[in-house]
Design goal:
By secondary structure, this protein is an alpha+beta fold. It has one domain. Helices cover 19% and strands 38% of the residues. The strands form three sheets. Strands 1-5-4-2-3 form a five-stranded mixed β-sheet, with helices on both faces. A hairpin with a 2-residue loop joins strand 6 and strand 7. It is globular, with a radius of gyration of 17 Å. The two termini are 33 Å apart. 41% of the residues are buried.
Amino acid sequence: MFARFFVVLCASAAALLAPRAHAGTPRPVVVELFTSQGCSSCPPADRYLSELADSRADVLPLAFHVTYWNQLGWQDPFSLGIADARQARYVQRFHDFAYTPELVIDGRAAVVGSRRGAAGAAIDHAKSADATAANVSAARHGDGVSVSIGAGSRSARVLLVGYDAHHVTPVGRGENAGHTLTESNVVRAFAPIGQWSGAALTLQANTLPGERLAVLLEAPDGAIVGAARVADAADARPR
C-alpha cells in the first residue's frame, strides 16, 4: 500500500526543445511501473500496464518488481535489486521516498500507478513533447544483439532490458494472499551496454534473460531520449 498520493509532472526546457532527430514511425513512450506482488495497491496498476502492453504499440511498458515488500509475507519471484536501484534514481529526482505502485513516463514524470487519468495525461504529454534524440533500431542474432543508433546532438547511456511478456502467479501469503495475479512485461534483467555521444553508433551486446528485449537511451538527467523494441533477425518482427 502507499501512504501518500501525489503526482509529479516535470519536463525541463531542454527536454522540450530537444531536436527531433527521428523520422518515420515515432519511438514508443517508455512507461516504467515499480510494483510488487506483496502490495495490495499494485494489482490495479498491473492491470493498467497489461492493457497498455496489449493495445498500444506507441507505448513500451516495463514492470520493475521491487524487493522491499519481500519481508512482509510474500517473496515476489520477479523482484530484483536493480529495480530498487532504478527507482532510487527517480526518488532523487521526483520525491523523497520510494513507494508502489509508481509509474514513471519517459523518465520525466512520476504518477501513482493506479491513477489512469494522470498516467494517460503524462503519456500524451510525452508524445507531444517528442524529445527523441536519435533513431534506435535493434535486432537479436542468436545469443547476441546488434543495436544501431543514428546521429543526434545529445548524449545518452545505452540500456538493454530483458523482460517476459506474461506471468500468472497464485499468491499464497502477504497482502494479496489468495489472489492470482496476471502481470505483463515483467523485467528480468537490465544492463548498460554502451555510451552514445551524438555520432552514429553500432553496438554489439550479449542477450539478457527474458523472452523479449528492448533498448533505451537515457540522457544524463535520467530522461529517456530514445527507445526501440528488439526485433528477431530471422523475421525482423518486434519481440
